[in-house]
Design brief:
5-stranded antiparallel sheet, globular, 18 strands, 7 helices, alpha+beta
């Protein structure tokens, strides 16, 4: 299986399966001399790990990360940084009933047709378990970006229910199990997902990720557009089916006067009067907040029986048991943050390589 590596100068390669002994990644391109500890990575691993509320999968994983190489006496050496997380609570027997049955909405059918073999234990490499290592790589990317760049994500919609942006408070994101910036939305989301779980179903979500403090000039204007790489990074997250930068699809409904982000001088600095571009113009960062939204489809593993086929070519029905998220989009928040960090760190290194 090819294409397990992401990035250009800042690159990471992930390995391992959902129900294998461990998952891990090798991060290449980190400059030497950057202070880095396992504890600094663990902070972000803990945001994503499962089993923290009844609204996510009840699989119990500590997601304890171990640095295997690339760090000496507390600082990076410039060598590849190998990271590993042991799988502690895999229950492969939960998937025995679907060993020869394709789950609708999953990668089962396409993996089987492409490779002639599939790991039915939680989906193997197609499982969102792999994204834990993206979060680990993202923690390193944040160290490269430095304290001047802040990356924050929030869940802004579950199903048809959206947060009230008038109540937006970034401080609230870490105070509830939904990463919601609107404290008034929490009770509504709780009831919505309680009802969804009881019905044996699932719901999708929309996530917003904002990067502040990004310098002007990251990205290249033709085949390495910053917004194109960000869109690709977010689309590469499991279950993501749509990405918007700035105003996104709403820009098609705006007039030219409304959409253009007008500029004025503030002392010797250029300021923008709006940010419909989402912090990127011509593929290059403007210095404004970079704003990316992505849509996560409903969890495909549900109790409600669905029509499908099996590996022998027979019609069948499937009901997926086991421990699954009623809304997989919740835990996509720290993953989106990590992918934003990885793209920005990559482009920062590329920018320095060309422009000094």
């Amino acid at each position: 299986m090819s294409f397990n590596t992401f990035g250009h100068l800042f690159r990471f390669t992930t390995f391992g399966e959902s129900h294998g002994p461990a998952i891990g990644c090798v991060v290449d391109g980190t400059p030497p001399g950057i202070p880095l500890t396992e504890a600094e990575i663990q902070v972000f691993m803990d945001k994503r790990r499962p089993g923290q509320s009844k609204y996510t999968t009840q699989r119990k994983e500590s997601d304890t990360v171990k640095i295997i190489s690339g760090v000496f006496e507390g600082v990076t050496t410039g060598a590849p940084i190998a990271l590993m997380v042991e799988n502690e609570d895999a229950r492969s027997k939960d998937y025995d009933d679907i060993k020869n049955t394709f789950r609708p909405g999953h990668a089962d059918y396409t993996y089987f047709k492409k490779y002639g073999i599939r790991d039915h234990r939680g989906g193997g490499r197609s499982s969102a378990r792999e994204t834990a290592m993206r979060v680990a790589a993202g923690a390193i990317a944040r160290k490269i970006l430095g304290p001047g760049v802040t990356i924050r994500g929030a869940l802004v919609k579950i199903g048809d229910t959206a947060v009230n942006r008038d109540n937006w408070d970034w401080a609230e994101v870490d105070n509830n199990p939904f990463f919601s910036p609107d404290p008034d939305s929490v009770k509504t989301f709780e009831k919505l997902l309680d009802d969804t779980r009881k019905a044996g179903s699932s719901l999708g979500a929309v996530i917003e990720v904002v990067a502040s403090g990004v310098p002007v000039g990251l990205g290249a204007p033709v085949y390495a557009k910053l917004d194109a790489d960000l869109a690709g990074a977010m689309m590469g997250i499991n279950a993501v089916k749509g990405v918007e930068i700035g105003a996104g699809f709403e820009a098609a409904r705006l007039s030219g006067e409304e959409n253009a982000d007008e500029m004025r001088m503030d002392g010797d600095q250029v300021t923008f009067l709006s940010n419909n571009a989402g912090g990127v113009l011509g593929g290059i960062s403007t210095g404004q907040d970079i704003v990316v939204c992505f849509a996560v489809k409903p969890t495909s593993s549900i109790l409600t029986p669905r029509k499908t086929v099996d590996t022998a070519g027979n019609d069948a029905e499937v009901s997926t048991k086991g421990r699954h998220d009623p809304c997989v989009g919740i835990r996509a928040v720290p993953i989106g943050e990590a992918m934003m960090a990885c793209v920005l760190a990559d482009h920062l290194l590329l920018h320095k390589a060309q422009c000094g």
